[in-house]
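ok so I'm stuck.
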Amino acid sequence: MGKTFAIVSQKGGSGKTTTALNLGAAFAVRKLRTLLIDLDPQGGSAYGLGIKPGDFSMGANDLLLGKADIRDLLIPSENPYLRFIPAGSFSNVAEVDRFHNLGKRLGVLRRAVLSVRDECDVILFDTPPGENSLAVSALNCADSVVIPLQCEPLALRTLPQILRLIREVKTKVNPALDIEGVLLTMYDVRYGFTEQVSEQVWKNFPRDLVFETIIPRREDFSKAFIQGRPAVFDNPMSPASLAYLQLADEIISGLASSL
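replied:
not stuck anymore, here's the structure
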């Protein structure tokens, strides 16, 4: 049975979607059957996989409305081990708001995910930033949480808020939920605060709650994203790609040790 990870962050621009895309791609490169589910109505994951709105007619939005079966939503990627479910198509703000409200249907998404877990080794959720019902719904389905944290002071200040949300979900609806780790992203030694933020994280969190892997700030991510490919697929030997492959190996090692 596959393990499910929710990728959540309080602050936008933290590398959340970049992490969802490239971690999913890295698992696929390691030949793990991976399903990436996009719950962010911005649709960044679809764009980063080169999937255009005309390439699909339904998404997670239709699943939560009870209009589609999860298996009908699966879209293949260039790697046979990675499949994808888009958030859906949204033509106006009202439709986006409705999608957010559908996140309150916790049982619908959980039942759908449970129905395909035996067919997956890993399931990843890309969620909207902040405390919202779609993030809660993903956390309700998840075994564990990956928290991308941009190496900047503002991102560090928002970290307690997302930790509080995780704690509330664990207390109220999903007692099995664990934190896989805080992932330091956009690390760049050219900025002095990068070192300060990372030192604060290492100082204030248990070592087992912070990934050893650190994601660098690299143009590779943006270039690959524009081309509609995860960096891990676009240039597997780039420092950006190697970082996510290392992260995947770190998580896989933890999975193996827990068996």
